[in-house]
Each structure stands twice: as C-alpha cells, then as structure tokens.
C-alpha cells in the first residue's frame, strides 16, 4: 500500500447524477461507508451513479465485493452504475478476478455523465 489515506465522498452532479469519489488505500475498514454512500444513489428519481475511482491507490477484495453488490442493487433498481477512470490498482483487481466485464467502465467522469 502507498499509505494514502482512504477517502469516500459524494455529491449530486450535473443532470442529477450521484457522483461518488473513492480514493486512497481502500480496504474493509472503509467499505461500509462506501457502501452506504453508493446506496444513496438509489434514491427515488435517480438515474445514474458515477464512481470516480481515479484516485484509488490500493483496493482489496472488500472493494470488489462492495462494487459488485452496488452493481446488483443498482441494476435491480434500474439505475445505471458507471465506474469512471478506474486507477491501475483497481483495474488490475477487476482484470485478475475476471469481473471487469461486469461493470460499465469509462475513462473519465465527463464520459460517464453522458451514459
């Protein structure tokens, strides 16, 4: 791990999209907060949740589990979940586990907003 403090934040972005930012060294200690923030994207009238993952420095299996659960919940609710700018460590985790194809992955938050 690089030692960068984990951070999870969210806000409503353009067009009413729910923008979640995850960054730093993420592990099981931080994913309950991330899961709660992701659940807020399922609010009535929500159409899109964007996860800005460009700042993720470390991601373990708890990150993958949280993202897979969020994807399933969003799909059930008819709300798109898009991962924007997946960092090298997160992308490696998705590739090694064979789960990259389970997600909509785009290069940037800006690209995700057009989804």
Please provide a written account of the structure.
The chain has 115 residues and is of the alpha/beta class. The chain is 37% helix and 30% strand. It has helices at residues 28-39, 61-77, 88-96, 109-112, and strands at residues 7-12, 18-26, 48-59, 80-84, 104-106. The protein has a five-stranded mixed beta sheet. Strand 3 (48-59), helix 2 (61-77) and strand 4 form a beta-alpha-beta unit. The model has no long low-confidence stretch (mean pLDDT 95).
Low-confidence stretches: none
Helix content: 25-40%
Radius of gyration: 13 Å
* Number of contiguous helices: 4
Average of pLDDT:
95
What is the element string, with H for helices and E for strands?
EEHEHEHEH
The biggest sheet, with number of strands, parallel, antiparallel or mixed sense and barrel status, is:
5 strands, mixed
Strand content: 25-35%
List descriptors:
115 residues; alpha/beta; five-stranded mixed β-sheet; 4 helices
Annotate the secondary structure layout.
Layout: E1 7-12, E2 18-26, H1 28-39, E3 48-59, H2 61-77, E4 80-84, H3 88-96, E5 104-106, H4 109-112
Parallel strand pairs: 2-3, 3-4, 4-5
Antiparallel strand pairs: 1-2
In short:
This protein is of the alpha/beta class and 115 residues long.
């Amino acid at each position: 791990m690089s030692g960068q403090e984990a951070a999870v934040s969210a806000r409503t972005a353009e067009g009413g999209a729910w923008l979640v930012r995850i960054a730093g060294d993420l592990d099981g200690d931080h994913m309950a907060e991330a899961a709660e923030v992701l659940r807020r994207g399922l609010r009535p009238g929500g159409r899109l949740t964007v996860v800005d993952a460009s700042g993720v420095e470390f991601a373990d299996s708890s990150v993958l589990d949280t993202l897979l659960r969020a994807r399933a919940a969003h799909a059930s609710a008819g709300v798109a979940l898009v991962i924007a700018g997946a960092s090298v460590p997160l992308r490696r985790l998705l590739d090694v586990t064979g789960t990259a194809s389970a997600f909509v992955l785009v290069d940037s938050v800006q690209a995700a907003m057009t989804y």
